[in-house]
Design goal:
By secondary structure, the protein is an alpha/beta fold. It has 12 helices and 15 strands.
Length: about 375
């Protein structure tokens, strides 16, 4: 196969990628979210020329980009490569007339999702009440709280907010709600272990990213302590280097791997992470914390991996920047149907494309 062009349509938060092959077939993907316009520039500067070379296997393109541009290895190049990789999955699936999930080996038709709050500073009962209202409306059987200041040196938004938030959520949620707590690397090892004991006493099922993600030995120490306490640990949403992922999986840094499909390097690479995790007996669920098309991609991913966590993350915040595509998945009884149309099953909104920053690379 050979591509004729790679285009980007960018805003600050979202940048769509469209690839067109020499036969005129097209596919849509996305680079990593946030400062996406910067990533799009990197895509055209460092990745597009490589993607425009002939290839036999579309799943090798992202790896080729990362290897050939090894001097720039890191999150921005990985985010750019993901844009091309996800667009190629869409193109190839559409050419075959099947969904991405089917092309990747679909095993499930429906995915259970959890309501993921991104509010860290709301009064605790107000936050608990809004999550309960969403449970009543959409049937969520699981929710995720985001207390504490990200990478905040054990600091909370105000003293005791995390503990009070957990108590309020347990009291307010529907019976037997599966509750996840994500502190975005806030804790030291000792603080994380103390908080894990509190969380376990209140029925919390999963502690996400307890320590700064780059300190994976600290996260492993927390996980080992949490195994004795009786609560699982998850992480991985920021990681993008193969050797780091392999090491974390092989040494059981976490119980649940959470690759971000657009930060890790693309759908192909995230599938590889899931395969290795399954071989080591670890569960997997992707980081899909907003209502952009990354959530749609997450549905396809959860439909075909071997050891999925029971729930996929579903962002609940009504952010206009994220809703720049159609159609949006419907949530009913806490479940979402995996798209069955060819490709990913979404199309960018024309009004977003019209207002975006446009760039093109050609052969």
């Amino acid at each position: 196969m050979q591509l004729k062009s790679v285009e980007t349509f960018s805003g600050n938060f979202v940048s769509y990628v469209r690839v067109t092959d020499t036969d005129g077939n097209q596919g849509w993907g996305m680079v990593g979210l946030f400062s996406a316009d910067i990533t799009a520039t990197i895509l055209h500067r460092l990745a597009a020329d490589i993607a425009l070379q002939p290839f036999d296997d579309f799943t090798t393109v992202a790896d080729t980009i990362l290897r050939k541009q090894y001097k720039f290895l890191g999150t921005l190049l990985s985010r750019a490569a993901a844009g091309i990789d996800t667009a190629l999955w869409d193109l190839e699936s559409k050419k075959k007339g099947i969904s991405v999930a089917e092309l990747a080996g679909k095993k499930r038709d429906y995915i259970d999702v959890y309501a993921s709050s991104m509010k860290r500073d709301l009064p605790v009962q107000e936050e608990a009440d809004r999550l309960r209202a969403l449970q009543d409306k959409y049937g969520y059987r699981a929710v995720k709280l985001h207390p504490a200041i990200p990478v905040g040196f054990n600091e909370d938004y105000w003293p005791g907010r995390t503990e009070d938030m957990i108590v309020a959520m347990v009291k307010t949620a529907t019976p037997d709600t599966h509750i996840i707590v994500d502190v975005n690397g806030n804790y030291s090892v000792d603080k994380a272990i103390d908080m894990a004991k509190f969380m376990h006493e209140h029925g919390i099922k999963l502690l996400e990213e307890p320590c700064p993600y780059w300190e994976f030995n600290e996260t492993r120490a927390v996980r080992e302590a949490c195994e004795k306490i009786g609560i699982k640990v998850s992480g991985g949403e920021q990681d993008c280097v193969d050797s780091v992922w392999n090491h974390m999986i092989d040494t059981h840094v976490m119980d649940v791997c959470q690759p971000n499909l657009l930060i890790s390097g693309g759908f192909t690479k995230a599938l590889r992470i899931a395969k290795r995790a399954a071989e080591k007996g670890l569960q997997v669920t992707p980081h899909t914390s907003n209502q952009s098309p990354i959530f749609v991609m997450g549905l396809h991913y959860m439909a075909c991996i071997d050891t999925p966590y029971p729930f996929l993350e579903c962002g609940i915040e009504d952010d206009a920047w994220s809703k720049v595509y159609n159609p949006h998945p419907d949530i009913k009884d806490g479940k979402v149907t995996v798209p069955t149309v060819p490709g990913w099953g979404f199309e960018p909104k024309p009004e977003f494309l019209e207002k975006s920053i446009y760039q093109i690379s050609t052969r």
